[in-house]
Amino acid sequence: MEIKSLGYIGFGAKNPLEWLKFGTEILGMMPARAVPGESWGFPQDPNFKIASGGKGISEDGSVYLKLDDYQWRLGIHQDDENHGILYIGFEVDNVSKLEEAKKHLLENKIDVLDGSEDDAKARGVGGLIKLSDPSGNPVEIYYEPTLDYKFQSPIPNQTFVAGHLGLGHLMILAANREQTYDFYTKILGFKLTDYISFEGGDGAWFMRCNPRHHSMALSKFGEANGMHHIMFQVDSIDSVGKALDRINAANIPISSTLGKHINDLTTSVYIKGPNGWDIEIGADTLNIHDDDQWIPKQFVEGDIWGHHGIMDSIAEVSAEIEEKADDGKN
Ligand SMILES: [Fe+2]
Q1: Which domains, ranges and CATH numbers included, belong to the chain?
Q2: Residue 99 alpha carbon to ligand 1 centre in Å
Q3: Which end of the chain has the smaller Cβ count within 10 Å, N or C?
Q4: Phi, psi of 121 (to 5 degrees)
Q5: How many angstroms separate the CA atoms of 64 and 35, rounded?
């Protein structure tokens, strides 16, 4: 099965408009020029106006953000309860690859639902299937995303490193790490790039589906299941530094100071996003081009420099998730 990239992701949020402000003013994303499902009209029709008017807000109040040629990469939907992942979209090349993927999943006894035409419209794609990973994260596999070009960051001169490498990366906390890892590697076909394991079975595992060092990372930290962070890669260290200036000016809490990871060589800062989990803004991430020669290795001693607070942040986010899960049970 050939997943090409992490294409889109949807989150729940108390107030999606908060994300619109944060996504544009802090991260430098652009509101989707048209929200998925609405008409682009006829080419060169001078009288046609896109209904959402480039505001990135759909009729139901969802917010869609764009960071490259893709029509949208982040969908934020009003949800009072769930402020985590509503769906993770992985891209395959075309309809026959999607059919192959479905067959492969069914052979591996994974429940798969066909997305309806309305589902495909709601994502602006040619078609999709729906499933769940063993940690309960809803996963979608799709083909033919809408690309509309004309990305223009509200932050002068900033661009994102995305396109065929996908939107960035995601680190999820997975209590049943082994099963979730087996799902992503043995079934979806991700490759292990590297890992760090702690005493007692906790640790982090970094997996790739294209040259980007990792598109998905799994972290086992106690019993928590959910989001730890999403990473967006910008064009340069200067763009990371300028983001840090905006973060400080807006008094956004920093959960891990500027630093450089020893494995993917990313120089980044982690901040608390509107949903309470972290957002990593980084540059200079390693791409792996010698795929066949690459040997997954354990890195043992953390970061090259900086990233102070990262372990506390993982512990904090995990504890919040576990607390919430316990509240739900009581
Ligand atoms: Fe990361």
Answers
A1: 5-145 (3.10.180.10), 163-329 (3.10.180.10)
A2: 31
A3: C
A4: -65, -40
A5: 6
* Distance set, CA 18 to CA 46, 315, 322 (Å): 33, 25, 25
Q: What's the mean pLDDT in 290-304?
A: 89
Rounded CA-CA distance 312/321 in Å is 14
At 42, which amino acid appears? F
CA–centroid distance, 171 to ligand 1, in Å, is 6
Task: Kindly report, residue by residue over 174-199, the tens digit of the pLDDT.
Answer: 999 999 999 999 999 999 999 998 87
Give 182 Cα–ligand 1 centroid separation in angstroms: 20
**Largest CA-CA distance found in the chain, in angstroms, rounded:** 64
The per-residue pLDDT for 329 is 58
Residue with tokens 């390693």: 286
- Residues with Cβ within 5 Å of ion ligand 1? 231, 280
- Terminal Cα distance for the chain, rounded: 41
Separation CA 255–CA 320 (nearest Å): 14
Residue 281 CA to ligand 1 center (angstroms) comes to 9
Write phi, then psi, for 147 (nearest 5 degrees).
Answer: -110, 130
- The residue among 47 and 234 whose pLDDT is bigger is 234
* C-beta separation of 60 from 72 below 8 A: no
Handedness of CA 32, 37, 38, 43 (dihedral sign): positive
